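Hi everyone, sorry if this is the wrong subforum. Our group has a chain we'd like a structural model of before ordering constructs, and none of us has done structure prediction before. Sequence below.
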Amino acid sequence: MTKRMKRLTASALACAACAAVSLTAAAQPDPFADYEAMKRGQTPPPPPAASLPAAQPIPSPEPEIPTAPWKWSFGGRSAFSYTGISNDTLLAQEQSNTTLFFRLTPTVGLTVYERVLVSASFGLLGNNLTREDGSNATSVAALLEFTGHYILPVTRRLAFLPGLGIGPYFGSNDRKLRLPDGRKVDEASSTVGVAMSMYGMFGYQVSPNLSVRTGIALYSLFQTERVESASKSLGASAVHVGLPIELHFHVL
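Answer:
Right subforum, don't worry. Here is the predicted structure as tokens:
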């Protein structure tokens, strides 16, 4: 390449660089434009509009049934029903009785997986038994129950919670013991059994921290009563439908 061609090429590159700098400078706002406009009595041009942040979605004020994993809840369970119970007697006769069945149990729950709720409750289980002479004896036992529910949201605040529960219970009964001299004294007998449950319940989120549940539940129990004075064990069983009512506080 000749020296003349080199000089022409260098001149062209210099012109291109000057043009680029001029365009860039022209794109920048003139810092003296406002001052010159005010000297001429004109309104200065408006400043360039600042970019606004994107609008964020507003969370709904309505509370929602919690279904996320690792959420704790604390509350209480109750259930009531009139039910039939069958039990053995010392006269080798089976008695049947229609009586009030109740359970009251404080409860702690944890969603161990998405929509999977596991609960443990410890409280009282009570029913009546019929003795050999036709009298009734109240049976009260301590119940430890483990329950699993699956949460199926219906609306934001309402959900259907089918579930299963099982647990042991331990208690005692009173019975009249006739002594050889004809006197009657109260005798305590020990009771041990297993309680099982099937739940079909609806839960409603009253507030972000409070929910109520109710529906229907199928309860069953199978127990053994030990009578030491007669060296016998007497069985009893019951299956019935009850009305559960529950109240739960959620830890957010």
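For your construct planning: The CA atoms of residues 220 and 239 lie 4 Å apart. Residues 23-27 have pLDDT under 50 and may be disordered.
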